[in-house]
Amino acid sequence: MTNDTTVSSVPSHPTIDRRLSFLAPSSMDGETVLAQPVAINVAGPSNPEGYSIYSNIRDGKEISLEEIMDGLRYVMEYRIKGGRFPSLEYDIMKRLADGLLLNMGDVTKRGRFRQRLSEEADVAFQLFGEFLLEVQEFRQAVGEKPVSDLRHALKLDVRCGSGSTEQQQQAAVALLALLTTMYPQFADWKELVKSDGHRDVQKCMREHGDFVEAEKMPEMPGVILAPQALCFDRRIKRCLKMYRTSLDTGLPTEAIPTLREHYGRNILPQPPSTSVFRMIWTQFTDFMILLLLAVAVLMAGTQDFIPMTVLLIVVVLNAIIGFTQEYKASKALDALTKLSVPKAQVLRDGETSIIDSEELVPGDIVILEEGESVPADLRLAEVSQLEIIESILTGESVAVSKDPREIRTLTRKLPLGDCKGNAFMSTVVAKGRGKGIVVRTGRQTEMGKITAAITGQGKVLTPVQRKLAMLGKLLVVFAIVLCGVMAGVQIAYNPHEIGESLKVALSLAVSVIPEGLVAVTTVTMALGVRRMAARKAIVRTLPAVETLGSVTFICSDKTGTLTEGKMGATQLWTSDGTLYGFTESTSLDPNRGDVTLQASPGETPQVLGKSLKDVPAQMLISLMVSSLCNNSSVVVKDPEEDVPVNPETESAATVTIDTEAQDIPSSPSKVEWKGIGDPTEVALVVAAQKAGFPKSYFHDLGYTRIFEQAFDSERKVMSVVYKAPLDDNNNNNNSSSSSSRHYEFVLVKGAPEEVLNRCVGYLPSTPAGEASSPLDVLKPSEKSTTLPLTEEFYDNVQDASGRMADEGLRVLGLAFKKVKLNGGGALIETDGDGLDHINNKIKDPKEAPPPTLRPTDVDRMTAANVAAVLDDDDDEEIPPGYDESELMFLGLIGLIDPARAGVQESVRICKEAGITVVMITGDHIQTASAIAKELGILDEDGRAIKGEELDLLSEQAIAELKPFPNVFARVSPDNKLKLVTALKSRGESVAMTGDGVNDAPAIKAASVGVAMGIAGTDITKQAADIVLADDNFNTIVEAVEEGRRVFDNILKFIVYLLSCNCAEIFLFLLCAIVNVPLPFTVTMILWANIIADVPPAMALGVEPAEPGLMTRTPRSPKRGILTPTSLAVIIFQSMSMTLLTFGIYMWADRSEGHLDYAHSEAFTFLTTLQLLQGFLSRTMRTSIFKNNMFGNMWMIYGVGISFVLMIIGVYTPGFNNILNLVPVNGLTWVKVLVGCIIMVVLSEFEKFVLRRGGWTI
């Protein structure tokens, strides 16, 4: 899964993206804390092309302009107005002014030709005036603007024009008055208005004179309510006040209609539906199909019913296959309609009731029970052992334990898996109960945004579809020209035979159209699908087979695709400088693997024992932290029920993991183990188990957890507090009653730099005999067992951490702290977070409206809820001894997700094939870069970039990055869509992998979307073109090779078909020009096309891949099927057959009594050469003598069938009369043999020239 990180700064750069970003404050004073809600909605300055700084959900972006404006409006009304914050950070205000000015001109269509300013443009205009009144730095930023920029952005002439509203006119007059009175440079109001609008503005100033003197902006219509947001960084009481609700009574029923009108109904965007009839109709409106139908009609007109029947069969077959593929693709959209939750248990007016989920509004209190689906995005307020399965969003099948505490972070965006305090629409409660506040509904929910992104992706033709359509149009033009030329020549020589000339010309037109093209293309792709399925790549859309062969970029997830997806601990560095290793680290079986003491190079590592007397204190306490500061576990499945059984909690089928007293089933090799929880934490648990010290070992000693501080993205650490009995014989004492004496200690793990910054000392080597047990270092002692930190120790930790990261390991720091005897002390009061850190002199009541704001109906209806929520902090208070400070450093543990076997070789093949492999991961950039270098993805001069940097770049800027990064670390699924769009904008063909529902938009937008078959969700699979049954990167590369083979074969039979058909055309034209009788009759032309076109072409569709296929550079998506080189080959091959046949025909006796024999001889000669050309077309550049003659048995069968049909047509009495053929003698076959030899020589010469010139077809 991918993660996101905090953006530390937003540089002022013209390529900064429209998306959101945060500014990390240097100090948490009132100004910077308040600046965050403003900065969260502000991006960099606009670029010269004038795009909006806000992303738009209609364009597939993560947040809409309306959301941005609602957030800013709420901040103004409830945070700034009334002089509460007259000063804010200048940089933020400068960019806010740029953004507001840029969006004041946002328009919506009004009728076909007229446009009007949008509601968001009016809000931007209003906010511009209010910030001008309230904030000094905003006034300073506006004063630096040129008057021409203001005149262009404010559009005062439009706001005062005939089509404007009264509200727009009042706001325009008020803002004009503010600008002219505040700034000497803007004193002349006419400079701020276009000249042709002076009269309208003067009129408005007379009509709304009150606002000229008022020095204020008019009140905006509508209700100002809290914007929809996850609120993961807000406390419960703050959320209750924001949404004016109560956990005890919920919202009043009378307020629901107003809230629903403002927020909208809680329904997902409906996907566009396509009827079955329309799908079928679409199959018959394709240009090539229409062309074939037209030819079939013409054949019926000439009473050629056999070829007409063949054409109709081809058309129907193609329609059936095309309809099937489109019907399957539509299922991705149909599945979205099933994600809505029909009912919800809600608290309103103090009573619980079941209502339709679409009636929910932000502020509703929803009650969750086990087995229910979540009806909207919630901010959880109360939980009781609540666990929710979020696999539909994240792809993780393990239920996520929920915690209502706020997550302190400096970013508005947080990976969904890290939002422990939220529940998302359409996820399922696996365990426990909960109560939450509805904070997002309908389109604004996570599922709503994904649905909108998927349904908003229009149907885009694949490269092969576009190329075949273009080829068909070119062939029509070619046929029309040839018809005209042929008819003109014939009529010029024989004016009295106009009808016969037109019929022959029509037959030539039919000949030039390769009627087998559509059928052969479809069958070739279908066979490619079958072969790819055998390689564990399931193709959902037929043209994706060919498209995959032309990809230039493969953007692949790291975890589970490039790597095994199994995290394991490989190294442990302890504070005494000792390095330990773990064998079989990724195996979850606790009986497999040991801990080794790393030896010097060339020496065998020493395997350590698994008892207290065999392990040093530093190693034991480090592994204790790994095991106990952890909420994950390793379980063994019940073989009968296939249900995980936790060996530490399940008494009916206990599995003891302690290696000294194992109760494992008699056949350990048959036991299937499974990790429950975060993969990183599972790896830590497994590491302790392999050393012989699982959780159960410490629980048996009486160790009991009494406090926990969960990991969050701001602290980047997790800590737990344990208590242990202080009895002399505690090693055999399982009692931990409150009456016994005990001691307490804190165990901490997290980011190495964060853990080390919280430490004041470290645990050095313990002299032999000083302690009876390594665990004694945790007990209270008058003698200190630790040493203070030194610069040298800091350097040692940094060197060890850097070395591990360079090896591609994910590094965690470990530490501990003794507390005191019998408890950690009394609680102390804390200041909370967010606005509670503001200096009391300027701190106003939270969420209170300014005195000037008139109460609305919603305010009056929900006043009781707001009054019931006190302003005291609802943060969990931490005992002073339990805080994460004054720790003792223990060591570093390095974990790795090993690369899959064969991936390095696959990456090398991709490079040789001209394909750029891009790794996408949620890992830290240093770890990701190390793995990428190991796999060969990242070269020494390569580039890696973080997701937070990607957020700050526009799609154009990403596309122009040089060198283009091969590693994208700490990215979110939103970044994937942005990356795909950027690469496609520069003409690349992109394959994108993904597994969660939030990956679906990027997968659908990619040239080829690749979903994971094991880890992927159903929605992702249905949105994808290809599903990997084994989630393996090697399979993608194999699929690329198969895709290249498919296109290669398509090109071979296209060149073959056009060469053969053009040979007939050129032969007829040549005979017409020299005014000799035409060599074939109309019936012969059609019979030759039937027997010589489809069977050999079908055989070419299953031709094995040529050597060196994966050493060619990818085809450009913009390159047509026929290139100048391929056209030259077609002309050379067709002219070779034409001239040889023309020579034979001119040599023959064409007198009146022998003309039929000359026709039959020419027919036999040319048809045989065409069948031979089928063999010669098996390779485009390689000599036919270097190719295995029997490598494609289908070619032998196909040519054999065609040759037999030709013999039947020539020698079968009666049937040859229908075809106007007569039997030919042995001399003709000698001529045929000589012609074949000459054809082979010419073909070898052509391929030699292509190889020598380095040309590709």
UniProtKB/TrEMBL annotation:
Q: Which residues form the Cation-transporting P-type ATPase N-terminal domain?
A: 230-304
Against InterPro entries, the record matches this protein to: ATPase_P-typ_cation-transptr_C (IPR006068), ATPase_P-typ_cation-transptr_N (IPR004014), ATPase_P-typ_cyto_dom_N (IPR023299), ATPase_P-typ_P_site (IPR018303), ATPase_P-typ_TM_dom_sf (IPR023298), ATPase_P-typ_transduc_dom_A_sf (IPR008250), ATPase_P-type_domA (IPR059000), Cation_transp_ATPase_P-type (IPR050510)
Q: Name one GO molecular function term.
A: P-type sodium:potassium-exchanging transporter activity
Q: Which residues cross the membrane?
A: 280-299, 305-323, 474-493, 505-529, 1053-1078, 1084-1102, 1122-1145, 1157-1177, 1189-1212, 1218-1242
Q: How does it sit in the membrane?
A: Multi-pass membrane protein
Coiled-coil portions? none
Q: What SMART domains would the database entry show?
A: Cation_ATPase_N
Key word ATP-binding present: yes
The answer to keyword NAD applying to this record is: no
Where in the cell?
Cell membrane
The biological process GO terms on file are: intracellular potassium ion homeostasis; intracellular sodium ion homeostasis; potassium ion import across plasma membrane; proton transmembrane transport; sodium ion export across plasma membrane
Alphabetical UniProt keywords: ATP-binding, Cell membrane, Membrane, Nucleotide-binding, Translocase, Transmembrane, Transmembrane helix
Choose one Gene Ontology CC annotation of this protein and give it: plasma membrane
- Family of this protein: Belongs to the cation transport ATPase (P-type) (TC 3.A.3) family.
In Swiss-Prot or TrEMBL terms, this protein is called P-type ATPase
